Fold these 3 entries.
Entry 1:
Amino acid sequence: VLAIWHQLTKTEIPELAKCSVLMRERSRVEETIHAMQRAGVGNLQVISDFDMTLTRFAHNGKRVPTTHNILDNRLLINEDCTKKIRALLNTYYPIEIDPSRSAEEKLPLMVEWWTKVHELLIEQRIRKDMLAQAVKESSAMLRDGYKVFFDHLAEQQIPLLIFSAGVGDVLEEVIQQNHVFHPNVHIISNYMDFDQTGVLRAFKGQLIHTFNKREGALSHAAGLTELQGRPNVLLLGDSLGDLTMADGVSEHENILTIGFLNDQVEERKESYINSFDIVLVKDETMDVPNAVLRHIT
Ligand code: C5P
Ligand code: MG
């Protein structure tokens, strides 16, 4: 199947013919892209995960930090806290990406991970006015081609919903410092709650982790009026949990899902191909999403 090159891939979207691009059903992808193109930009919205989807997984062989890991900076937390957070990462991250466990099985463990880390962060009395500096000092990095992606969506007035189980305040700072926090960007994430003196005292609202995005999507849907009346969705994620991010879109017509497969490639390849329309294997760029968008809009 993967060897069959259709006219669309050859002539219209050459990026889809790269060997890092896997598709279970190429014809479905083509039909969806055509349907979205016919419906036009006014019917389109983009829903994207943040960590390891809009940001790179690795750069020069080194892992790029998630929004949580950006907080690992002496300006914000002490050495003891760093050690504890790293120990939790070493315990729970392998569970998060374990292909042999179901999402149901992972769910309570993810709640445990996020809750423990958030408690540790609150103990550190993190200061709001230090976040920008911590992001500057970090090696946070958006995927190559990110500027084309964000700028194009802004120019076409296509809403971009960034749906992240990371830390919203840090996420905003990352896109701000990269000059792509445009007015069409909407964010659902875990936001910090600071007291009057600017010290972290809690996290706001319902906790969002990798495997409860569906509930978050449903509860926020009504509030996101800019996204209503746009039944076509381009969804980007790096976790199978990200596939539920569009569950709040009522009366959706066409959904095209793109999954970045960054880690544990051989173990997870089959489940990713069965779950996402397009799977990008160890691709640190936005080239494919950008090519699809260029074609639709
Ligand atoms: O933006 P996204 O939803 O991808 O953010 C969640 C990611 O952050 C998870 O994939 C998880 O691996 C990572 N994480 C982390 N440290 C934590 C909790 C989650 O790096 N304490
Ligand atoms: Mg992610």
Note: The chain has a mean pLDDT of 95.
Entry 2:
Amino acid sequence: MDAYEQITRNVSEVVTEAEVRALADSPDGKRAYVGYEPSGVLHIGHMLTANKLIELQEAGFEVVVLLADVHAYLNGKGTFAEIRETATRMQEQFVAYGLEESQTEFVLGSRYQLDEEYILDLHALELETSLSRAERAMAEIAGGDTATVAQAVYPLMQALDIVYLDVDLAIGGMEQRKVHMLARDTLPSIDADSPTCLHTPLIADLTTGVGKMSTSTGVSISMEDSEAEIEEKVNDAYCPPTADPDPTDEGEERENPVLQIFEYHVFPRFGEVVVERPEQYGGDLSYELYQNLEDDLESGELHPADAKGALATYLNELIAPGREKIRERTE
Ligand code: IYR
């Protein structure tokens, strides 16, 4: 696999291909970042972009993790003191999950986002941006029904972070894409470059396959889950024998979240997957490529129940070090 393929593996969108190719050609000294609103416990959504950061570290990039405390505050996630406390815990969990501590720069947003220069640049971007554009950029990120002024400032700060952290590549889930497009359009107005971006896919709701998995509305998987909870959640997951299920009777699109988790979480981190089965049911199956697992599920060679059993085992292994960290903290 060449560097470009490695960097863009499992991403839903590359902005732009030519820019990412240029970075892939000489990754040394290049900086990539993801920002996270501190929420205390890592869940499967954080882990998806973290997988990409781990791959970028392997490809030679410097990696920056922004613990976006001011953003979390602006998005109504609690008091400043609470958010800062959870940021520290989150950092420990990222390291436990597999981000190389010596090669990762963790930055608390408030370290520079309250500086005079930053605030003046923020006001310059405010002058350039209509309220409706800021609101649209936040549609997939904002909590609550009515957008606040704070939520309109939020995406402009996210755009400025790219400049102040001096990063070459911004990573985020697909829900961040409109913020990044806003950044590409408005940063030149303060004489900064338009950022290059990679967007990771969103995983479907675990129990229905409809819409995206969300910690606030549906079942999610987090580092706080016990082995038994993981097993139960995966067992109850929607897993028809296809990667491309029919829409619901109401015409809503559906996806197979079990296959998505194999593709985006398990294969990138483990490389090979073994599905254990008793001899009488054909014995163990082993896969080096995600596609072969998907094909076997479709053909009936691999039963959804066996796929789920294997998924629970691998997920459990992925989150075990982080779970251990949480346990140490609370003891
Ligand atoms: N909008 C992100 C948090 C965030 C991301 C970046 I990249 C920033 O520079 C700042 C904040 C979220 O939805 O979690």
Note: The two ends are 44 Å apart (CA to CA).
Entry 3:
Amino acid sequence: ALRLGTQISRDRLRAFKFGCGGSRRSLKVAVVGAVGGIGQPLALLLKQNPHISRLSLHDLRNTAGVAADLSHINSRATVCHFEGKDGLKKAMDKADIVVVPAGLPRKPGMKREDLVGVNASVACEVAHAASAVCPGALLALITNPINVIVPIVATILQAKGTYDPNRLFGVTSLDVVRSKAFIGDFLNVDPQTVDLPVIGGHTGRTILPILSQCQPTYKGTDEERKALIKRIQEAGTEVVNAKDGLGSATLSMAYAASHFVNSLIRGIKGSKDECIVECAYVDSDVTEAKFFATQLILGPQGIKENLGLPEMDDEEKQALESMLPLLKKSIENGIKLGMEMA
Ligand code: LMR
């Protein structure tokens, strides 16, 4: 503890207040789509991470106001802002992490796949910019349809010679966050204490919560279990319908994505005593699908280890088998689009 009158340097005082240890490297995080419904709360949450020294905001327009607003928060990150096509490379220049909520959300009646036409171009621009100005960055994509967008970006990066499969992530954390929330409610326990893998992709039947591995043990009737899985798989649509034309999940998505980015940062910081495990949709040889979400151990270079398929009961194995063709079709579509756009 500090005694009154102790001489202490400003640096030591900082370390005392904010903690030290691990790598002291300062980190630049770029948010592409920072003015949108997800982008703003996401930027707000990231502004609170003391390891981020530079928070770079990009959007088509109106970034100045969001940046001015955030810059009045007395946390470490300095905030810079860029706009339009020309600003994208400047925003992403030498970034350590690029997180991408940019793109259009769906409206009631739409499937995530219906967004490919508009959102593929966003993915394409991000991939080209990343190849040019931050080829070593960890890329965390939120833009829908994730099942297709991640293969698009991977294919473009591959064509540019800058693809590192350990550094590209489709953010599926919201599926885990939702599963924990719904199971916590059902079991009447704190959702923060719930843990389970959610594997596959990020739409409908491709989202596979592995309830058999849930901690604490999930106990429910067959009917309750089916209803719970259905609710997790259709949770995005539940929000889209509740928002009634005003978009899709923004706040819970920002929460889940910031949690994921914070985990990427903990991985970069590389604390030896900490094992950082997150689910994300990544390049994979775990199943026949070339991209697949499983639990990953994160480290300084992104994915340190893919934990592969969890143990599953017969119903879960069957659900996996039956959704794989759907997921594979989306991936093939993504690779084809990526080749056209490379
Ligand atoms: C979600 O899961 O909420 C997002 O993917 C947005 C959507 O369209 O459902």
Note: Residues 105-106, 112, 144, 174, 236, 239-240, 248-249, 253 surround (2S)-2-hydroxybutanedioic acid (CB under 6 Å).
